[in-house]
Amino acid sequence: MDNEVQLVACAIEGEEYAVDVGSVQEIIRIQEITRVPHASPYISGVINLRGQVIPVMDIRKRFNLPSTEYGETTRIIIIDSNGTLVGIIVDNVSEVIRLPIQATEAPPVGSSGINAEFFTGIGKLGHRLLIMLDMEKILGINSDV
After folding, report:
1. Which of 50, 87, 127, 139 is the most buried (most CB within 10 A)?
2. Which residues contact 59 (CB under 8 A, 6 or more apart)?
3. What predicted TM-score, i.e. pTM, was given to this entire model?
4. 46 with 34: CB under 8 angstroms?
């Protein structure tokens, strides 16, 4: 429906984030990641997913958050951004949410936090606030990052 958005809800450092379900190809458990020399500091390496080599980004490093050990709930969200597949590591994935467009807001004016450039808006679901991620900016697509 055009009057709602579907989002994959995930957590990073205790905060709830959301990724548009249209850009999510799949969600997998954490697996062995092969390091790549001279990669960006926030690229953990690459994985082999059914014969396809996919770069994996540590979203904590991208957001300048403290690193943590991967746990049972750690997941890699495989994002398809204009035909390019990239994995992002999150602490957990909780659910797929349908949210009415009117329950979303643009980022607050003057939101200049560390990661403000990486989100497109705020989704309100009852008492929960979901930070809606701008995957193209996070992945550095069409930007100078």
Report:
1. 87
2. 12, 42, 88, 89, 90, 138
3. 0.89
4. yes
- pLDDT tens-digit profile of 90-144? 999 999 999 999 999 987 766 555 567 888 899 999 999 999 999 988 888 643 3
CA dist 124 → 22, 60, 91 (Å): 19, 23, 21
Contact 24, 77 (CB under 8 A): yes
The answer to whether residues 18 and 7 touch, using CB atoms and an 8 Å cutoff, is yes
What average pLDDT does the chain have? 89
Would residue 145 count as lying in a domain? no
Instruction: Count structural domains, the chain.
Output: 1
Residues 6+ apart with CB under 8 A from 64: 114, 115
Q: Is residue 66 part of a domain?
A: yes
- Confirm whether 135 is domain-assigned: yes
Measured CA to CA, the distance from residue 94 to residue 84 in angstroms comes to 25
The boundaries of the domain holding residue 51 are: 4-139
Q: Where residue 21 sits, what CATH number does that domain have?
A: 2.40.50.180
Task: Give domain status of residue 47, yes or no.
Answer: yes
